[in-house]
Design a protein that fits this description.
Shape: elongated
Protein name: Glycogen operon protein
Largest sheet: 8 strands, parallel, barrel
Strand content: 15-25%
Distance between the termini: 82 Å
Strand order of the largest sheet: 14-15-18-19-20-21-22-23
Number of helices: 17
Helix content: 10-25%
Keywords: Glycosidase, Hydrolase
Domain Glycosyl hydrolase family 13 catalytic: 204-615
Region (Disordered): 1-38, 165-192, 511-533
Radius of gyration: 28 Å
GO molecular function: hydrolase activity, acting on glycosyl bonds
Number of strands: 31
């Protein structure tokens, strides 16, 4: 083994080629500026922290965990890109650290880490590669992917062994740098909305796509955090009534090589490389630390409007991909420490489909993730997280384990257990589908809700059993361990897949613009084009599609659980049939705000807003406990009842019979729990009638004790929903439910 003294001696030398096999490509050496002074500093906190050091001298403490490294050099860059290398010689508990006097906020930096080159055992140290600090609070520049940024010779003739041939060309001119940030901010003027889960309505949006074409946002702010903080953007969110925005990834990310080669870019951002840094390309104010303040101001503006901020986070993999991927950060710091490797340690375990998987069982990796999460809560002000492919984080050594270190740490963390936690409860590995399995504290994206509602409205369900569960909170999935109905995040569409308009306009995906011969994206869309593929001039088809949109939105917003809308669905946004627009940073993905002024589409937005307002006003639509289905009074009235079109309560046989119509009675008299002052919660009662048949149907309104009369509040067969229909019907009346429609009736 190499002694600490030997490692320190080597750290005084310029970066040199070493390892196995011999270097294949070398770069010329440049004369470097004089080495800056470095004091011992401290091993915590990790990252670059500006502070006042000994004798009142201002500077920055740098600390990097690199367990197997033989030497670590801090690299400082001036405004002309000239590099000063500072050996970090202090090593405490596998953390290399030092305090550099005079290094102020705005300083750009990176690391070079030396060690063994032996890919056969997973060792991929290469000091020729400048590495991004995993704890960098800001990143200046974008990742291009020329050959120099690969630790191996990317274009080696024998590709089957290319990852074993080290490339010694300097990557520093081709990669972004971390930025020292002065992040002193106490948030005393901020007031978090702290919306209870049961009262939440989530709106999934993309910072750039939501604001890029907004006509009332100044052009220089469009596509940025400042643009989302603009009153014109917030006005739409407030008018809709959503309580939280779920932002597609805003951690610093990189573009994949295969996209850059095709002239495309990663738009969604599920390719993270900096877990503490807000993505620099979304900043209007600058990228040498200004992006941090701009993000904070955005959060404050949303909070002031009563809107929480939830981040979609990608801790399951990084942008470094597999053995043939670039060396940008963790791979060059300690490949074996950060990533799950196969028995053949040249290869990466891939539960994500993206080439690698972070080794969350490792204490330092778990620390990286939890430090990042706490940072975004305590210093950036966010209110919660949606975890991409969360099952990958819950794996112990191989299997998904709901007692895994990651879930255990989150459960006991005094900061993280108090924020909103949303799991995407699956990954692509064996046993990775875990819908309904995450423990209390967690809510989950419920794709069974999505699939069932889509199938019901295209009349593809064999019976209505599944629909009953999904409308009433999915108790079959979540009524265990003290979980509540709001454990289910209900959605019909998400960023991944068709938009709502495309769901009723296309039966097959049309992803040709992605350049992958339409192979990418799911084929399981459960969509129905209403009689014509794509856009059409047939007004009959167009009207049918608009009705289906109203049905889907109404179903979502009347269902028990937490509804999630996708930005633009309320406007009738289309992606022209692309169900995997991850690389479409253009009008395919951006919101078309002209739809808001279109008389054809504006009523859909008005209906969405009205349904959300109805949900906020009526606690029976946002229950905090599951329905019991039992009578709580002598008259036999239950908190939840189901009716056939004959006006009779459904029997066991009715649940198994083919049907296109379902009546759901929600009693406002039997809502469990009390309000903030301890008083019983009492509300109106409602009857929702959902009919997916292609023709109208008769429906008998249930009589006493259920109701004396009914008032129609919503009728999705109507184009204009600006005013409630208000029609009154005596109990026992046979009414006609139009083809493919939802009626919501208030009980009197």
């Amino acid at each position: 083994m190499t002694s600490a003294a030997e490692r320190r001696a080597r750290s005084e030398e310029p970066a040199a080629g070493s390892g196995h096999p011999a270097t294949a490509v070398s770069g010329s050496r440049r004369a470097l500026p004089p080495v800056a002074p470095v004091w011992p500093g401290a091993p915590t906190p990790l990252g670059a922290r500006f502070r006042v050091g000994p004798d009142g001298v201002a500077g920055t403490n740098f600390a990097l965990w690199a367990a197997g490294a033989e030497a670590v050099r801090l690299c400082l860059f001036d405004e002309h890109g000239r590099e000063t290398r500072v050996p970090l010689t202090e090593l405490t508990h596998e953390i290399w650290h030092g305090f550099v006097p005079g290094v102020m906020p705005g300083q750009r930096y990176g690391y070079r880490v030396d060690g063994r080159w032996d890919p056969w055992v997973g060792a991929r140290w290469n000091p020729a590669k400048l590495l991004l600090d995993p704890y960098a609070r800001a990143v200046d520049g974008e990742f291009g992917l020329p050959p120099e940024v690969y630790g191996h010779v990317r274009d080696w003739p024998q590709q089957q062994v290319a990852d074993t041939v080290r490339d010694d060309r300097d990557s520093a001119p081709h990669v972004p740098k971390g930025v020292v940030v002065d992040d002193d901010d106490d948030w005393e003027d901020d007031r978090r909305p702290k919306t209870p889960w049961a009262d939440s309505v989530i709106y999934e949006l993309h910072v750039r796509g939501f604001t890029k074409l907004h006509p009332d946002i100044p052009e220089d702010l469009r596509g940025t955090y400042a643009g989302l903080a603009h009153p014109a953007a917030i006005e739409h969110l407030v008018r809709l009534g959503v309580t939280a925005v779920e932002l597609l990834p805003v951690h610093q990310f990189a573009h994949e090589d295969h996209l850059l080669r095709r002239g495309l870019r990663n738009y969604w951002g599920y390719n993270s490389i900096g877990y503490f840094a807000p993505h620099a390309a979304y900043a209007a104010s600058g990228t040498t630390g200004q992006q941090v303040g701009e993000f904070k101001r955005m959060v404050r503006a949303l909070h002031a409007a009563g809107i929480e901020v939830v981040l979609d986070v990608v801790y399951n993999h990084t942008a470094e991909a597999g053995e043939l991927g670039p060396t940008l950060s963790l791979k060059g710091i300690d490949n074996r420490g950060y990533y799950r490797l196969q028995d053949d340690a040249r290869r990466y375990a891939d539960y994500t489909g993206c080439g690698n998987t972070l080794h969350v069982v490792q204490p330092q990796v778990l620390r990286l993730i939890t430090d990042s999460l706490r940072y975004w809560v305590t210093e950036m002000g966010v209110d919660g997280f949606r975890f991409d492919l969360a099952a990958a984080l819950a794996r112990s050594m191989h299997d998904v384990d709901m007692l895994s270190p990651f879930l255990a740490v989150i459960a006991q963390d005094p900061v993280l257990r108090r924020v909103k936690l949303i799991a995407e409860p699956w990954d692509i590995g064996s046993g990775g589908y875990q819908v309904g399995a995450f423990p209390p504290l967690w809510t989950e994206w419920n794709d069974r809700y999505r699939n069932t509602v889509r199938d019901f409205w295209r009349h593809a369900l064999p019976d209505v059993r599944e629909m009953g569960y999904r409308l009433s909170g999915s108790s079959d999935l979540y009524a265990w361990g003290g979980r509540r109905p709001y454990a289910s995040v209900n959605f019909v569409t998400a960023h991944d897949g068709f938009t709502l308009r495309d769901l009723v306009s296309y039966e097959t995906k049309h992803n040709e613009a992605n350049g992958e011969n339409n192979r990418d994206g799911t084929d399981d869309n459960r969509s129905w084009n209403c009689g014509a593929e794509g856009e059409t001039d047939d007004e009959r088809v167009r009207a049918l599609r608009r009705g289906q949109l109203r049905n889907l939105l109404t179903t979502l917003l009347l269902s028990t659980g937490v509804p999630m809308l996708v930005a633009g669905d309320e406007l009738g946004r289309t992606q022209r049939g692309n169900n995997n627009a991850y690389c479409q940073d253009n009008e395919i993905s951006w919101l078309d705000w002209s739809l808001l002024d279109d008389p054809v589409w504006r009523p859909l937005c008005d209906l969405t807003s009205r349904l959300i307002e109805l949900r906020h006003r009526h606690p029976v639509l946002r229950r905090r406990a599951f329905f019991s289905g039992r009578a709580h009074s002598a008259d036999g009235l239950r908190d939840l009842a189901w009716f056939t079109s004959r006006g009779e309560e459904m029997t066991e046989g009715d649940w198994y019979a083919p049907a296109a119509t379902l009546g759901m009675y929600l009693s406002g008299r039997d809502i469990p729990g009390r309000d903030e002052r301890g008083a019983p919660v009492v509300d109106d009662s409602f009857l929702a009638v959902l009919h997916a048949g292609e023709g109208p149907t008769a429906f008998v309104l249930p009589g006493p004790p259920w109701a004396e009369r009914y008032e129609v509040l919503v009728d999705t067969s109507r184009e204009d929903q600006a005013e409630p229909p208000g029609t009154l019907h005596p109990a026992g009346t046979e009414i006609t439910v139009p083809a493919r429609a939802v009626l919501l009736l208030r009980v009197g």
